[in-house]
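Tip: read the tokens left to right.
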């Protein structure tokens, strides 16, 4: 099938069961992928499939490969149905979550998507038939995604200042907030600090009381970090957060999050160039 080839299938049709075929009168790509995502598992015997782990994993990857072309409602509904079908089995729920992690949340994920992965991780985190040791990593991932999900509210950011005082995102209420996860000994972070500190738009917004930049070390307050902070801009909030790995993915250095006054995550996952463009846009909109 041309559609199958176009979206990069990973296993031959029928390795475990016949894949669904969209009706001939469905011509649009999104409609066909909605159908495939929705009906993909209709003819799967899960008990038998879980006895063939490698083939099931490849088949799961095929299902995931349709999702970027399908509607969000179809994707979420299909994921819910699949998880509902295995919820009485801790091992099967855990197995699906591990496959979802590989395909959508790991460093080698072919289609990285927190939104696709989240229901699987949450299903494990809430399943008491799964051992605490197996649940722990998924519970942490759910906690991280909940904290940094785009469009959601960043609910946790605690830190200690170079002076040893406790601080929290909760007290910051400017119109815009940049959370800059910064490793003091990272070269890319150092370059980002220089560019952000020299940015005319960032400085104008800070001076006008419209922007707060929070430069957060994702670790404890070491002597090396304390020494490095002496060169950080005085206008920034600077802190070390030793529990950052429990609330932030820390996949790259540096990491940027743009929040509004209610701490809603407006944007994330962009490099320093994207952050500077966003600040230029904010300044243009304020007219200062």
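Filled-in amino acids:
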């Amino acid at each position: 099938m041309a559609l199958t080839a176009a979206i990069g299938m990973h296993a031959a049709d029928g390795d475990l069961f016949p894949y669904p075929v969209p009706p001939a009168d469905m011509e649009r790509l999104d409609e066909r992928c909605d159908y495939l995502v929705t009906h993909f598992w209709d003819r799967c015997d899960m008990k038998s499939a879980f006895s063939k782990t490698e083939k099931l994993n490849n088949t799961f990857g095929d299902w995931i490969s349709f999702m970027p072309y399908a509607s969000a409602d179809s994707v979420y509904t299909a994921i819910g149905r699949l998880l509902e079908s295995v919820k009485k089995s801790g091992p099967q729920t855990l197995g699906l979550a591990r496959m979802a992690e590989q395909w959508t949340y790991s460093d080698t994920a072919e289609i990285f998507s927190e939104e696709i992965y989240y229901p699987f991780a949450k299903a494990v985190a809430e399943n008491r038939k799964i051992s605490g040791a197996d649940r722990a990593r998924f519970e942490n991932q759910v906690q991280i995604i909940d904290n940094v999900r785009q469009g959601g509210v960043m609910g946790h950011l605690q830190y200690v200042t170079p002076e040893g005082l406790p601080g929290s995102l909760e007290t910051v209420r400017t119109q815009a907030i940049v959370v800059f996860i910064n490793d003091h000994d990272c070269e890319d972070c150092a370059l980002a600090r220089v560019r952000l500190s020299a940015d005319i738009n960032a400085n104008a917004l800070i001076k006008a009381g419209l922007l707060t930049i929070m430069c957060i070390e994702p670790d404890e307050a070491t002597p090396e970090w304390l020494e490095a902070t002496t060169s950080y801009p005085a206008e920034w909030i600077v802190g070390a957060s030793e529990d950052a790995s429990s609330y932030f993915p820390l996949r790259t250095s540096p990491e940027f999050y743009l929040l509004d006054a209610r701490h809603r995550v407006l944007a994330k996952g962009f490099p320093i160039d994207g952050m500077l463009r966003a600040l230029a846009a904010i300044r243009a909109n304020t007219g200062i």
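The beta strands are 158-160, 166-168, 176-181, 211-217, 237-240, 255-260, 265-268. The chain is about 45% helix and 10% strand.
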